[in-house]
Amino acid sequence: MASAREGGSVTDYTDYEEFKKIARNIKVDEQMSIVIPFVKMGKGIDRDAPADLGGVLLDMPSFHVLSEISEERRMYNPSEKDQKNIDNNFVYHAPKEGQSVRYILLRDEAKKLAELFTVNCPPSRELSLALTNLEQAVMWANASIARNE
Questions:
Q1: What residue segments make up the domains of the chain, in order of their start?
Q2: pTM, two decimal places
Q3: What local confidence, expressed as pLDDT, does residue 11 receive?
């Protein structure tokens, strides 16, 4: 490891800096899954190649907590409909053909509206709330596509 005396900065050689180099092309998709490109896994692909050449998808692990809660500790039991919604809403939904284009369209149109807000409204708590709720609207619109098709 180089030291600051040798002309290098100590921060140039920290674990954090190494992590930043490795994680540069790791992506998180709309469903909060992590995609690690093959170039980061030493598969021999050209390091200058685009990161979207493929990779490994890591879903967040599923936990079946309700099954681990004993009957005497449960206050309520979810209905079949509620359990079906939970199972659908808290799982990764890989984009199907044509969905990614619609996600982009929704985000682009919302961006135009956000820009309209920011040039016509004074900086304020209300503007911040409008922008936050617009972000939420896009997220829920994308979720409606992902969860229900």
A1: 1-78, 93-149
A2: 0.51
A3: 47
Residue 48's Cβ-count burial label (10 Å; 0-12, 13-18, 19+) is exposed
- Integer Cα distance of 7 and 93 in angstroms: 49
Query: What is the reported pLDDT for 63?
Result: 42
Residue 149 to residue 137: CA distance in whole angstroms? 18
How many other β-carbons are positioned within 10 Å of the β-carbon of residue 83? 12
How far apart (Å, rounded) are the C-alpha atoms in residues 105 and 145?
Answer: 13
- The amino acid at 105: L
- Per-10-residue mean pLDDT for the chain, 149 residues long? 47 60 60 57 50 56 53 82 90 91 95 97 97 97 95
Q: Give dist(CA 148, CA 146) in Å, integer.
A: 6
Between strands 34-37 and 27-28, the pairing is antiparallel
Contacts of 90 (CB under 8 A, 6+ apart): 62
**Cβ(32)–Cβ(60) under 8 Å?**
yes
Instruction: Indicate the residue type of 116.
Output: L
CB 96 within 8 A of CB 149: yes
Determine the length of the chain.
Answer: 149
